[in-house]
Design goal:
Layout lengths: L17 H4 L9 H21 L6 H9 L7 H25 L29 E7 L8 E6 L8 E3 L9 H16 L14 E8 L5 E7 L6 H16 L10 E6 L13 E5 L3 E5 L2 E5 L9 H15 L6 E5 L5 H6 L5 E6 L2 H13 L5 E5 L2 H10 L7 E5 L8 H9 L3 E8 L5 H10 L14 E8 L9 E7 L1
Parallel strand pairs: 5-6, 10-11, 10-13, 11-12, 13-14
Antiparallel strand pairs: 1-2, 1-4, 2-3, 4-5, 6-7, 8-9, 14-16, 15-16
Helix pairs in contact: 2-4, 10-11
């Protein structure tokens, strides 16, 4: 889809502060309560599935597909997510048992599970939305929205997202204007590359400062440079002098792409209008955001998440923090004032440029950022590590998880005794990472280091109305 309780621990420092937990719902209820919640969720799921049958509106179908919990009161959404995370930790415990590791804790979990930390903003929280162009319910191929159906089933319909509760009004406004523009264009939409057409997806990014960035992807097909220049000029005119001026864009980007996804290095983002970057504030720091740089999609939720990471890291004045998959440096820079040094690694080169700018602008000098694949940079960085200072690692990978070489480098570096793994899909490839971090030494896999053990899990609801949340798992050894 284009658009993404706990036992009392013996040591206070393994638990979030009272300020962090003060607003938490009481999700650690009895097993009976959990079963009732699960049963209620299943009933409502069946009801939703019924609404997706012919006769249901396309708006309902899209809401059910992209935000399946939208009908539930927010506290019930948190209950559903808590139950989901509990099952993930039970699965991890069982998998560890299969490896000969006694990981079973009360409730069959591999470690204590805190309640789901609620999002400060429930509706319109997304600061980034991706809209597709395809055939709408009325058959118009120039409809800008989100997909219902699948390519495999060949039943994709593009439905406008005006009713979606997780998308803010500004994103919907830009999408509506883009649709108006392409419907007036003589060029066709590009649905299947081999069938021709040009107009493709729209990405909208916004910040709490009121900045709005629009990025339009365009398949050039056989168009020459003069024809491309004409389309870019028309697009700029529409958003700066025409009906699109209501969007008040801070930045308008254009990318020519012949691939499904294209980085800046593969095909540069061309600035047609406005500023090259937008800016956001997080925990008192100012961050610069490029078109393809990673930034947590829920800014308010990210602040709560990073505050917890700061506490759980236990990083002191002599600590070096390894920020792996660092994006624009948000995690590391938010901890920079309390540690000796920050080392960030990120594959997106533009994000590293942003991270370096962010550090300089905020007056942070105790950091260094490396551009490249983590599996290439990290092993080389740690292979000759001789620094005696404590080393804490924070990893925040994509849904694909960490490359095996990254896990191996972390595992085999004796200086890393504490690891925080932030996962948006812990039941996916991250599960493989967890097992690699915790399994007994395996010379065949070159896992010689002492295994880690899961100590605490805290889910953060970064995605209200969806079934997803961000799970922070603390590992120590």
């Amino acid at each position: 889809m284009a658009l993404s309780c706990a036992r009392r621990l013996p040591r206070w420092h393994l638990r979030p502060s009272s300020a962090l937990l003060s607003s938490l719902p009481s999700q650690g209820g009895s097993v009976l309560t959990e079963k009732k919640t699960a049963a209620k969720w299943k009933e409502k799921k069946k009801a939703r599935e019924g609404c997706s049958l012919p006769g249901s509106s396309w708006e309902e179908r899209l809401a059910n597909a992209a935000t399946p919990l939208w009908r539930l009161p927010y506290q019930e959404q948190l209950q559903v997510k808590y139950e989901s995370q509990r099952k993930i930790l039970q699965t991890l415990a069982s998998r560890l048992e299969e490896l000969g590791i006694d990981a079973q804790k009360p409730g069959g979990l591999c470690c204590p599970l805190q309640p789901v930390v609620p999002s400060p903003v429930i509706n319109g929280y997304r600061n980034k939305s991706t809209f597709s162009v395809n055939r709408g319910p009325d058959g118009n191929p120039k409809t800008v929205g989100l997909y219902v159906g699948t390519g495999r089933a060949r039943n994709i319909v593009c439905v406008k997202a005006n009713h979606m509760e997780n998308i803010p009004p500004k994103h919907k406004q830009v999408a509506q204007c883009y649709e108006e523009f392409i419907r007036c264009s003589p060029l066709d939409p590009c649905v299947l590359f081999h069938e021709g057409g040009n107009w493709r997806e729209l990405v909208v990014r916004t910040t709490s400062h009121g900045h709005t960035m629009a990025i339009i992807t365009f398949h050039p097909q056989e168009l020459g440079q003069e024809a491309l220049a004409t389309q870019k000029a028309l697009l700029k005119e529409f958003f700066t002098c025409g009906p699109g001026t209501v969007c008040a864009l801070t930045s308008l980007y254009f990318q020519e792409s012949t691939m499904t996804r294209c980085s800046h290095e593969q095909s540069p983002f061309q600035l047609l209008h406005g500023e090259p970057h937008i800016f956001e504030e997080l925990l008192g720091l100012k961050f610069r955001i490029s078109p393809d740089a990673f930034f947590q999609v829920n800014t308010g939720g990210a602040e709560v998440l990073y505050q917890a990471v700061r506490e759980l890291s236990q990083a002191g004045g002599d600590t070096i923090l390894l920020d792996i998959c660092c994006g624009t440096g948000t995690v590391g820079l938010s901890l920079a004032h309390q540690v000796s040094k920050i080392i960030g690694i990120e594959v997106v080169e533009k994000a590293i440029e942003d991270a370096r700018w962010n550090a300089a602008f905020n007056g942070i000098s105790n950091c260094e950022f490396h551009s490249g694949k983590a599996e290439a940079v990290l092993p080389q960085l740690l292979s000759s590590w001789e620094d005696a200072r404590p080393l804490v690692a924070v990893v925040n990978p994509s849904r694909a998880g960490l490359h095996y070489k990254v896990v191996r480098a972390i595992r085999n570096c004796k200086s890393i005794r504490r690891l925080l793994y932030i996962s948006c899909k812990p039941e996916g490839e991250a599960m493989r990472n967890f097992l690699e971090l915790c399994c007994p030494p395996d010379p065949g896999k070159k896992l010689a280091g002492e295994p880690f053990a899961p100590m605490l899990a805290i889910p953060f609801d970064m995605f209200p109305h969806t079934v997803h949340c961000e799970l922070v798992l603390l590992f120590t050894r």
